[in-house]
Amino acid sequence: MTASAPVSVSASGLSLCYGGTRALDNVSLRLTRGVTGLLGPNGAGKTTLLRVLATAVPADRGAFTVLGHDPATARGRQEVRRQLGYLPQTPGLHLDFTPFEFVDYVAILKELTDRAARHQEVRRVLGEVDLADVRGKRIKKLSGGMRQRVALAAALVGDPGFLVLDEPTVGLDPEQRMRFRELIAAAGESRTVLLSTHQTEDVAMLCHRVLVMAGGRIRFDGTPAELSARAAGRVWSSSERDPGAKAGWRTGTGTFRNVGDPPEGADLLEPTLEDGYVLTLDGDRAEVTA
Amino acid sequence: MTWHVAEDDLRAYARGELAPPLLWSADTHLAACADCRALLAEAWDPVALDAAWERLDAELDAPRPSLFERLLVRLGMADHTARLLAATPVLRRSWLTAVVSLLAVSVLTARSGHSTTTFLAVAPLLPLAGVALSYGPVLDPTHEMAVVSPMHGFRLLMIRTVAVLVAVLGLSGAAALALPAYGLDALGWLLPALALTATGLALTPRLGPVLAPSVTGGAWVALLLAAHAYRTGADQVLVPFTAAGQGAAAAVAVLAAGLLLLVRDRFDLSPSGAR
After folding, report:
1. What's the angle, vertex CA A173, arms to CA A170 and CA A174, rounded to 5?
2. Is A206 in a helix, a strand, or coil?
3. Nearest-neighbour CA in chain A from B96: distance (Å)
4. What share of chain A has pLDDT > 70, as a percent?
5. Does B273 touch chain A (CB under 8 A)?
6. What is the DSSP letter of B19?
């Protein structure tokens, strides 16, 4: 993705206070086509940001547009919603419905009222998430991974241009997570996808860009390689845990992997995206306590 | 054959765009005219034909709707509205069973105790609770998805409200028929029911989907207790069920409905705030 790629989602100065907590603090961002990862610890404001961009809650301050539409007006909000696919953190499913019935229900909410065309679209998205064979089975009889795919199919129905996915891989086993990554990558080929996750591997494998949030603010905005590069020269190996390290743990080989400010002559290691993420958050903590 | 279907009409027929009565005329004629059938075959767009087969295939592939949905469609409801109602939690069997049980108990109390007060007090609370539970994050697991959908939240609310009102008011009406000795007095719950439901909905954007119906229901119970405390005789009808009380209930219903219309856009956002 080049820097000149057309911007599909643009936000400026988004702020939102909730119960005395500043959940979003002057957040600005620009998203382009492809998958953008959103990393951050619990309480960082990731879900709040996604809910604001999905038009579920309005921001106290700031503005944003999605594919040229401004949700500040009722008409603009409806246009944004027509372009939106949203998979909430805990997607509610009607467990007594079949996947077909559930996705059909969401398709109706998305204004697909023509029965034949709607059923055709439902069949298409169920095929896309590989659930065609269980389309007539009750959702309560499906595995967690399958249920998550039902929710993804519901988000994909109507072919939205902007897909908001809030921690879709939580609770999935490695095989299911891999399958889900394939689906998200495929969805990102023709759409703008904002993916909130705790899994740095998801970001490393899927995303052309990553945002790191903490304390309601964007602390990093760049490519996964740039986030990893933040830890260049700051990851080293030692036989004992280095007390000066910000973080350190024994690896499978028996040596310690330390992240922080290395001592002189340290045995430097190649940094990973997680190292860069840890150091970014550590910088944030230092800023907060300063 | 003395006439044939015009070529433009044949193309429109092939695209499925020919409207009655020309459509009926073309149908009848094509059944008898080989020349026009041959022209129709030429006019048929193979891409459109494939798309039509795909749509037909998808239609045949769709699972059979539930009994409830089939019943609603039989009653003349559009299939998409029936699907929306099938996803309404309070129209499930468990909720309706609870409503029937409550009504049965209050009717039996009226028949044995020679007073309709319990029935008249309980019946207005049922649609209030039913409507409150039909829209919102409390019972609807898909509430957040519904909020961010292009369908206006108020429209979905009204579809579900009307369905719940029809179901609950119908059951309450049937219960009132089981009290023939009280005549029209047994319908004294109807206007309070509409007033409470409209008030609960109108307050929802400000108080939230739990507090608004709770406050409204609590106010109704407090009003009945106050009326009970200040009545002058044991046989005296409680004020809310007198003509004056019914008039007040009608006025409240109208005012609340007006307020509801004014705040309708507020149903377009999630009430649960940030997370």
Report:
1. 105
2. helix
3. 17
4. 96
5. yes
6. P
In chain B, the residue whose alpha carbon lies closest to the alpha carbon of A51 is B274
Q: Distance (Å, rounded) from C-alpha A229 to C-alpha A272?
A: 8
Q: What is the DSSP letter of B16?
A: T
- Residue whose C-alpha is closest to residue B122's, from B139, B108, B136, B134: B108
pLDDT digits 0-9 by tens, B161-212: 888 888 888 888 888 888 777 777 778 889 999 999 999 999 988 888 889 9
Cβ-based contacts of B151 with chain A (< 8 Å): 108-111
Q: What is the C-alpha to C-alpha distance for residues B89 and B92, in angstroms, rounded to an integer?
A: 6
Partners of B56 on chain A (C-beta within 8 Å) are 116
Cα A202 → chain centroid:
9
Tens digits of residue pLDDT in A200-214: 988 999 999 999 999
CB A267 within 8 A of CB A198: no
Q: Considering only CA atoms, which of B271, B267, B270 is closest in space to residue B159? A: B267
pLDDT of residue A1: 45
| Candidate from B54, B79, B145 with C-beta closest to A86 | B145
- The 10s digit of each residue's pLDDT in A103-117 is 999 999 999 988 888
User: How far is residue A22 from each of residues A59, A194, A214, A218, B274, measured CA to CA in Å?
Assistant: 11, 22, 11, 13, 10
Structure tokens at B29: 């004629």
Residue whose C-alpha is closest to residue A208's, from A31, A10, A21, A11: A31
Confidence (pTM) = 0.78
Instruction: Quick: pLDDT tens for B125-144.
Output: 988 888 887 777 777 788 88
CA B62/CA A100 separation, integer angstroms: 7
Q: Decide if pLDDT at B20 tops 90.
A: no
Strands A209-214 and A217-222: antiparallel
**Mean pLDDT rounded to a whole number for chain A:** 89
- At residue A256, the 3 state secondary structure works out as strand
Query: Measured in Å, how far apart are chain B's first and last C-alpha atoms?
Result: 73
Q: Where are the alpha helices (DSSP H) in A207-272?
A: 224-229
Cβ-contact A131, A99 below 8 angstroms: yes
The tens digit of pLDDT for each residue in A222-267 reads 999 999 999 999 999 998 888 888 888 888 888 999 998 898 888 9
DSSP B220-270: HHHHHHHHHHH-SSTTSPPGGGSHHHHHHHHHHHHHHHHHHHHTGGGGGS-
Residue of chain B minimizing CA distance to A102: B87
Q: Flag whether residue A258 sits within 8 Å of chain B, measured between CB atoms.
A: no
Strand A61-66 and strand A7-18: the pairing is antiparallel
User: What is chain B's percent helix, strand, coil content, to nearest 5?
Assistant: 75, 0, 25
Counting every residue written for chain B, the total comes to 275
Nearest to B212 by CA among B157, B167, B274, B142: B157
Statement: residue B271 has pLDDT above 70: no
